[in-house]
Amino acid sequence: MIKKRHFLYYTLIALLLVSFNGSAQTSKESCCKKENKKKTSKKRRKKAKKEKKGACCSAEMPNEPKVLKMGDMQIPDVELVNQNGEKVDLYKLVKGKVVALNFVFTTCTTICPPMGVNFVKLKELMGNHVDDDLVMISVSIDPTTDTPERLKSWSEKFDAGSGWHLLTGDKQNVDILLKKLNVFTPLIEEHAPIILMGKEGEDNWIRTNGLGKPEELASNLNQYFNAEEAQPEGKKVQNDQGAENYFTNVKLLNQNGKEVQLYKDLLKDKIVIINPFFAECTGTCPVMNRSMEKVQEYLGDKLGEKVYILSITVDPENDQPGSLKEYAKLFNAKDGWHFLSGDKENVELALKKLGKSVASREEHDTILLIGNVSTRLWKKVNGLAPVEDIIKVLESVIQDVEQTSFNQH
């Protein structure tokens, strides 16, 4: 009887121990869940917090979003596809590297083909840097049409070889990237021949003309590989010389009949707003120049001292200084607002250098170029946009203080 009682006693003890262990395990799991919940809450409130030592369990922290720094631009890591149909991790592709980035579309018949030729020549000049510490990228601004196959076929026309990444993808993703890079335009035909150059994570990015001489583009890229040896003043002289060589000092005439040189008199050490027009236009030109009149009012004393407006005719045979002087009066043009004409070949050269050359006057665009020649920063804005938008872009260029080196064209 005693043995039976002992058996029942020990059985009861065993059951209690099993029950206790199960409760303890459940309690521990509850502790973990509670702790995880607590950590998740703190993660949301404080974004990040290291786990404390001695916690009964640990929760895996989610990955931080990948963001690339290109000058003053914060670029998200959107999913793209290259010309071989391979998914591209943009973050891994450019992180910590020097980047040459331009924007094209395969059905373009004007600036994109010569930009492609220029890019290949630039790639050849950069030699061993390509794909080692330099990444060369062309992003399609027409991803709906530009499939990987089309991009590959387009690039093969230039004997591109390896080392040139042509990217497309979902339109939403591509548009996000283009907007973050400040190159998005609703009408792809109006896109500018922009090339961005710089080192990911650094501030001194260059936004320049992809149709510039490959040798000058290569010179700008090389500064990122020899940053410790760069001489700021020497670099500035080199860039100024390159700008003068590109623009030239072709002679033009303003509305007062005064002869002026394109680079030395109109661009060097100045902030400029450049718009194409012709006096007989009754559509977009009066609208743009009326906006320029309001910009002139906004600038006040800055006009002619710090900022200049350059309205260049695309019809020099009809728009001579005498008639332009009368035209300028319609918009109350003050000193610092030049209406420019001259010999046809001179005007056409100036328009070509500014990316405004057209086969016929009616084909001119409505894009304003706004540039700070000293800091080499240039931006574009639609001349038909609200004046407030134009002024906002203008102010961003005026206030630029060497944060972005920009060598136009």
Count of β-strands = 16
Distance between the termini: 107 Å
Residues in helix, %: 25-40%
Going by helix content, strand content and strand pairing, the class is: alpha/beta
Radius of gyration: 31 Å
CATH architecture of the largest domain: 3-Layer(aba) Sandwich
Number of helices: 12
CATH homology group of the largest domain: Glutaredoxin
CATH topology (level 3) name of the largest domain: Glutaredoxin
Strand content: 15-25%
Order of helices and strands: HEEEEHEHEHEHEEHHEEHEHEHEHEEH
**The top level CATH class name of the largest domain:** Alpha Beta
User: How many distinct domains?
Assistant: 3
Residue runs with pLDDT of under 50 for 5 or more positions: 16-20, 22-64, 227-238, 401-409
pLDDT averaged residue by residue: 80
